[in-house]
Amino acid sequence: MKKLLLILPLLFLSNCSGNDRINNCNFLIDVGVNHTVNLNLSSNFPLGTITGVVLIQNQGLAGIYVINVGNDTYRAWDAADPNHAQQSCSFLQLDGVDVTCGCEDENKYNLFTGQSYDGQLPCGLKEYRVTPSGSNSFVISN
Asked: CA nearest 54: which of 83, 76, 36, 34?
């Protein structure tokens, strides 16, 4: 009976996988974000239309992309590629409603969903919370 009690925990430990997909999504560190977006500012006019995108610099890790997804709803994503260590090339370049990593892997994501197109990447874009704050503004935070 004692042998069984010793073997049972070993079986549980040996069944743990070393390539857990959740653990692969830790390239982006958490930084405090609390930024108000005023839709009346000319720099934010693109957000007045569906599919309009604005890059807010000096926020998040590499800036924050904000997209109007319709019905006065906005989504905010970090502009750093979450699928590899941060480098100068890992800034995501905007192309319509898509963003693409400048590194060799050229990972491509959709700003409506935050997911990659090929579905093979373990991590989606890092999303920030968007909260309405008055009739013409909202707050991006985490």
From this structure: 76
